[in-house]
Structure formats: C-alpha cells, structure tokens
Amino acid sequence: MLDACDGAVMTDTENLLEVRDLKVHFPLPKTNPFASAPKVHAVDGVSFDTKRGTTFGLVGESGSGKTTTALAIMRLAPITDGSIRLNGEEICLLAGEPLRQQRRHMQIIFQDPYSSLNPRLRAGEIVRAPLDQLDVGDEKIRDDRVAELFRLVGLRPEQQALFPHQFSGGQRQRVGIARALATQPDLIVCDEPVSALDVAIQAQILNLLRRLQEEFGLTYLFISHDLGVVQHMCDDIAVMYLGQVIEHADRLSLFGRPLHPYTNALLSAVPSADPALRDRADRIRVSGDPPSPIDLPPGCRFASRCPFAEDRCRAEEPRLRLIAEGHQVRCHLVTDDGSPPPHLAA
Amino acid sequence: MTALLEVNGLSVEFDLKDGTVSRVINDLNFSLTAGQTLGIVGESGCGKSMTALAIMGLVPMPPGRVADGVIALAGEDLLGASESRRREVRGNDVSMIFQEPMTSLNPVYTIGDQIGETVRLHQGLSRRDARERAVDMLRAVSIPAPEKRVDEYPHQLSGGMRQRVMIAMALACQPQVLIADEPTTALDVTVQAQIFDLLKELQEQTSSAIILITHDMGAIAEMAQRVVVMYAGRKVEEALVDEMLTNPKHPYTRGLIACVPHLEAKPSEERKVLTEIPGVVPSVAELGRGGCPFAPRCAEAMDRCHDEMPPEIIAAHDHKVACWMHVMAP
Ligand SMILES: Nc1ncnc2c1ncn2[C@@H]1O[C@H](COP(=O)(O)OP(=O)(O)OP(=O)(O)O)[C@@H](O)[C@H]1O
Ligand SMILES: Nc1ncnc2c1ncn2[C@@H]1O[C@H](COP(=O)(O)OP(=O)(O)OP(=O)(O)O)[C@@H](O)[C@H]1O
Ligand code: SF4
Ligand SMILES: [Mg+2]
Ligand SMILES: [Mg+2]
Known about the structure:
The structure holds two protein chains of two kinds. By secondary structure, chain A is α/β, with parallel strands linked by helices. Chain A has one domain (6-345): P-loop containing nucleotide triphosphate hydrolases (Rossmann fold), CATH 3.40.50. Helix content of chain A is 31%, strand content 21%. In chain A, strand 7 (187-191), helix 6 and strand 8 (219-223) form a beta-alpha-beta unit. In chain A, helix 4 (139-152) packs across helix 5. By secondary structure, chain B is an alpha/beta fold. Chain B folds into two domains: 5-93 and 173-263 and 271-328, P-loop containing nucleotide triphosphate hydrolases (Rossmann fold, 3-Layer(aba) Sandwich), CATH 3.40.50; 101-172. Chain B has helices spanning 48-56, 83-92, 101-104, 111-123, 127-140, 146-149, 159-171, 189-206, 217-223, 241-246, 251-258, 284-287, 303-307; strands at 5-15, 21-32, 37-41, 64-73, 76-77, 94-97, 177-181, 209-213, 226-231, 234-240, 313-316, 319-321. The radius of gyration of chain B is 21 Å and the shape is globular. Classes of the chains: A alpha/beta, B alpha/beta. At the A-B interface, helix 5, helix 6, helix 7, helix 8 and helix 9 of A face helix 7, helix 8, helix 9 and helix 11 of B. The structure holds adenosine-5'-triphosphate (ATP) (2 copies), iron/sulfur cluster and magnesium ion (2 copies).
C-alpha cells in the first residue's frame, strides 16, 4: 500500500532538490543606533543539488549552519535570500495552502528521540498525526497506513498503544521514522538521527533507513557529525564551515581525495580503531575555535585556523571552484587541476 | 609494575522505590599503573559513570551504596577511609572531568575563582598565588589570553574552552589518577582531537594514570593502552587495546566493534549492511534470573548461558573474558 509514488509529482528532472545561493541571516538587536544591525550569517550562500533516491550529507563544525540549511529547506527557518526547488517547484515563496500541500513531500527526523515525541500521545496517534493534518484518505485508510508503518520500522502492532516513555531510545527513533514516512514524503531530513543512541542501536536505525530508502526510493538530507556514519550513508557530501560550503564531492572523491585543508583536518581528527589510519603521517591538526558568525573575517573564513594560510588567504575570499567532475572546493591553494595545497600533497 | 589504583570485587547497589535493590555494578575488578590510560566502554547505563563515582567516593548515599569490594590507591584502602580523608584524596590524588561541563562549572563564579578555589582548598595557596596558578593552568590547556580569560564566566566560553577549563581544574592539583567521563562527547572532532592531544601531553609530563570513559572504540584506540568492556554492570572482557581490536572474544565486544561504520581512508563502492546487536539492554529485573547478562541478545547463546553466570577466564595472554564459549569443555 505504500507504493512508490502515490501523490508525488513526477517530473523528468533527476534532481529532487535544487538549492541555489541560500541565505539565512538572523538579525540581532541593534547595539549602535548609527551602524546597521548585526546579524548571524548562519547560512551564507549555499548551493547544491540532490538526486532522487540518493542521500546528501551535510557535515561540518558545530554552528556551521547545517541544521539551519535543513530547516530552511523544510520552510521552518526564515529565508533571507536564494532559491529552493523541490520536484522542480520553487518553494521559497510559497505560503498558505500551497505550502501545506508541499509539506507532505518533506519530513524531518530529529536528533533527540526523547523530546521530539509528544509524551501525552500514544505512539499510534503520533504516527497518525501528519495524516490527520494533511487529510490523507479516510479513517480506515489512515488506520491501515499506521499499522503498515509500524511493521515497516520493526515495531509490533500492539506497541501503537504505548506512550513514548514506554519505549527505549532506539524504539522511539523508530516511532519518529514511522511518523516521517506517514505522508509518503519524497525528501526526509535526518538531523543527527542516531547521535543520541547507543552504538549498538545506531546500526539498527542506519540499516533501517537504508532499507526504507531502497524500498521506496526515498531521498535523504543527512546531517551527522560522525564521519564514519556519513561515509556509510551518503552518496554526495557538502562540508560546511561558517555558513558556507567549502568542499562538495561524491563519497569516493571526498573521502578518498579530500582537498580542502578543513576537510583534511576534519578527517584527520577522527579517532580511528585502524592503526594504519591513526599513524598516518599526513594527519593535520587545527587549533583554536572558529571565528564569530556575526563579524565575519575578510578573506577565507578558515584562515584563522588553517595551517597553510598565506597573506592572500587573509585578504581575498576564495570562490567555490569546480576542479573535477562533481568536485568543488573553496581554497586558494588548491590548483585548477585539483592538486591539494602543496604541504598536503607531500 | 605495581598497581596505583586497584578495584577489586566492587559492587554498587541502589534501593529502589518499590523496595527492591538494584545492583548496578557487580563484582568489578581492574587495576591501573602510573602513566597508563585505561579505557572503559559499554552501552548507556552499563555502570561506567557509577564506577567513576565509586572511585571518587561520590556514589549518592542513600539511596545508593558500595555494597562490596575494595578500592585501593597506592595501597591505601579508600572505602574504609574517613570522609575527611576521602575529600583530601578527591582534591589531591584523584580527580574527575564530568560528563556535562555546564553542570559542573558554577555559572556565578569566574573560571579563575573556580580553579583557584581547588588549589586554595587543597594546597593552602594564598588568593594571589591561587590566581597565578589558575592562569598557568589555563595556559597549560592552551586557552588563548589566559590573563584575560581567568576573569571570565563559564557562559562566555565556547564548549571546547569550557571543557579545557574543566581539564585545567581537574589537573590543577596534579592528581595521580584522572578520571575523564566522556570528556568530549559534546565537542566537534577537531576540538576533541585538541583535547586528546592535550591529555596525552599532560600525562607525559606528570605521569598521571587516566581512566577514559567513552562509547567510542576509536577514542579508546587513540588514547588507551588497556580496555575494559562493561555490560549491565559487569566486566565482560579486558585486554590490551590492540589485542581487543584485532582479537575480540566476547560476542558483545565483537558486536560493539562490528556495528560501527568505521571511517575508511579509501572507501569502496560497496557498502555492507551493518552488523546489528539485536534487542536492548535488559532491565535490572530481568537480570535477576542468573545466567549471562548478554544471553538474551547473544547469537551464540547455549542453554548453559541462560542458566549459569560465566566465570571470567584467561583466554589469551593478558586477555580476560567472561563467556561460556571460551570456557574449555571439561
Ligand atoms: N534562531 C536563531 N537566532 C540566532 N542565531 C541562530 C538561530 N538559529 C541558529 N543560529 C545560529 O546560526 C548558526 C548556525 O546554527 P546551526 O544550528 O544551523 O548549526 P549546525 O551546523 O547545525 O550546528 P550543530 O552541529 O551544533 O548542530 C549558529 O551560529 C547558531 O548560533
Ligand atoms: N539514583 C539511582 N537510583 C537507581 N539506579 C540508578 C541511580 N543512578 C544511576 N542508576 C543506575 O545505575 C546504572 C549505571 O548508571 P551509569 O550512570 O553508571 O551508566 P553509564 O554507563 O555511565 O551510562 P551513560 O553512557 O549513559 O553515561 C544505570 O542502570 C542507572 O539506571
Ligand atoms: S584558502 Fe588559505 S586559509 Fe583558506 S583553506 Fe585554503 S589555504 Fe587555508
Ligand atoms: Mg545542528
Ligand atoms: Mg555515564
């Protein structure tokens, strides 16, 4: 009954999602009446495409704008500028009923399975709520859909009657996934979906997400700070730093041949159980914290922590350049033919 | 080498509201030598933090109590010591970095006051010397402009800096044993790497022993020489880290290593389905039945596993495991 594309608008474009120059700036209270109001540049010109049925990963430092990007796409954060096309339709400016109709195509799974479920509702009612909100089918159809969803995520039918606190963390996340699947969305945003779970339970949820993707051709926007998880789940990955994408590539290129110094620092920082990775000579370390997203530095936003930064880096902002098929990078020292900064190439 | 810290037969119990007693740590043994790092891993609720609290003498009492066992520091029995002696040990010899930095830093005092307080209390320094010591400690944990930062309040610092302040506080008295309970869970990996480097560096200088509590086998591999795997309040396996990673014996440890998608330097096109450990950790009530605590989730479980607690045996050189699979048939 949950067959592939009931309700979805099929277009011939390969891309489910196209984001162009997305900006989300949060204004702060004015401190000086003569200056313009300061603002947080949470998302500052982000562009990417996501192919139907694939998983697009967003990684990067805490505060780099991953969640805000995802919320803007869900139309849950105020959009300052830019364009977002879902199924070929521009959704940035939608409001009212058309927005409500678009919402059924996008759902979100939150990090915290404890606070994201209403404690006073039974699990069955929680999963059913989006169907009620969007007036999907009649009572009988909704009942059947809920039963089917419970089966899909590996919960037993009688568990519909339980309240969230009667579930374990992993089971609660299953309820959250069932709720996200209820409206048969095309796009599911997974914001740190397994970070709050024990490693043993993480594997169950990651396998479930992949199985559901295969079965229903789902497209995921996947956010995680765990690079092992990202490498396992994502087909294309954008690395964010201070509101911008600093590197963007497919899975094999990004992990096999990372070019940006920050991406290299990020990958070097992952503690590894594999001695070969741990003792690699080219591990690089960064010091300090990222600069404030309110007063952005001139030049490259990573320059204050970059071990390779030159004068030019501190003066001139690097552009995001395409240096190989599907591989974009924002760094002055990466050459046009895709050689990493000289110090890294060694 | 003689042990600096010895934990022997440790059991911790809690009185529950329904009148029953829950044994959250059961017959735990391990020891630690100076300059060494011991990792403790296991699922949420398996008793990692409680083990740390027991060593610190901070098990909430009541409803909790150390029901049995010995904890000895350099030969001195801590469980039998007076409360004032324990307080002394806590400040000077054994200190702890807690799981949540925000709850353990006091928001109304400057960080200088908080670090200074520790050394004033325990080493009798004057106010002025204490402040100087605080600045030195902040410098030691690479906080930029320590003379300025020392007068700031916790909320003025980033998460990574707060964690470094916690470490500065824990190290201010140069403890012999430092317990770090998930010291980096809330931090970015780049900052985590800085903190780990810092801990290693400080350990080299002072040759303190470290107990690192984490759920990340990668962090263990990076930091520790020896590792204890806990499940439901018990130690199920103990070995040197490299041995544990290459040759895990307990089905739970094997699952714990296999269920994680480890980062690979050269990933391949193919992506395997991750190994799952089915089910969830049993509740304490379910554990009362005897038998191996992991049996309900174990793919290898035999009849005996459900009825009888497996003894800890030596499975290889310096490698202990509590699992019937590894007990020789008589
Ligand atoms: N409503 C808001 N008002 C003001 N600033 C905000 C708001 N929401 C987010 N920010 C700021 O925007 C920036 C990006 O935040 P965001 O939550 O998107 O980061 P993130 O990459 O998801 O980080 P994390 O990994 O910690 O989840 C941060 O500096 C954050 O403090
Ligand atoms: N006050 C209490 N009363 C009863 N049981 C308690 C109490 N405090 C802790 N426990 C129990 O003790 C057990 C061990 O808890 P502990 O905090 O040591 O787990 P942990 O391994 O540190 O978990 P985590 O990885 O989540 O930090 C848990 O099952 C917990 O429910
Ligand atoms: S542009 Fe310069 S500062 Fe920025 S990442 Fe590249 S080398 Fe580092
Ligand atoms: Mg976020
Ligand atoms: Mg704990």
